[in-house]
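Handout, section 3.2

Students often ask what a structure token actually looks like in practice. Rather than define it abstractly, here is a full record for TRAP transporter small permease protein. The first block is the sequence as you would receive it.
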Amino acid sequence: MPMRLPSWKTYARSVSMMASNLESPALTSAQAQSGKAVQTAAATTPVFGTLGRLSRLTLGLATVLALGATLIMIVEGFSRYVLNVSYFWAEESVRFLMVWAFFLTLGIAGFRQYHIRTELLVQRLPLMAQRAVWLLSCFAGMGFALILAYSSIPQVQRFYSMGMVSESSLELPMWLLFLAMPVGGVALFVYYACAAWYAWRWGDPFAPEPVDEAPDASVTAALSRQEPLL
């Protein structure tokens, strides 16, 4: 009776078992310690952009103002083109609400990573040069925020002392509208100050949130079965 030679799968299984047995305990321990160190470093590094209670309250107020302005515009458009009736207070109310909603969210938009960022050249620099660029960006933003807040205060004071009101019959105080500018400047300054502190202590404060690149479970199952997705 002829002898049957083992198949290539048997040889592959034997080689795999020998390789697993050759793995030293020291290497396994070093890999475990390295993984723990990475997890500890990730846990100790705070996440930039976490909103506190005051920030969430401000964001909620700005959302209410924006929704109110949107509702007023819808009602005004419907009544003007369908009912042939126009409300005198609609346009001015929308202007006031949208201005305040915009300036209230200047700093929060930065914390939520909604500001425009150009990173093509910065990513090619060494780490120290990247940190210098981050800090320079933060200082430039802080300077702009200070100019915005400081230059708008005299305008608010002038409108307040003159008692100037809006042109419509609502007669809304104009200083209340321009007060949104220094408030937004202070909020923007706080954001850039926090970003500068984060860049000095930990890393990139302008980095977007990591994207989960793990495939979907259904996609993985279909690929494993070599079946079409559709």
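Discussion prompt for tutorial groups: Residues 127-162 form the longest helix (36 residues). How would you have guessed this from the sequence alone?
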